[in-house]
Amino acid sequence: MESGPAVFAGAAFTLFGAGLLLWTSVRVRLREPVAEGAEQATAAVLASVFGAAFLAAGLWTFTRL
Hints:
Oligomer: single chain
Number of helices: 2
Radius of gyration: 14 Å
């Protein structure tokens, strides 16, 4: 019964983190802005860090099932 919410949370974190990393890498490769009104390098680094953190949180959640 308790694994249902954990699976949902793990899937949500993992998909969001992977999506953010993919989106950031495509924007950087095309040399388009990652965030409106922010430095390209700063926005890319912050988006990558948060994407990796969400991906790690999702994977950690799956290990706790």
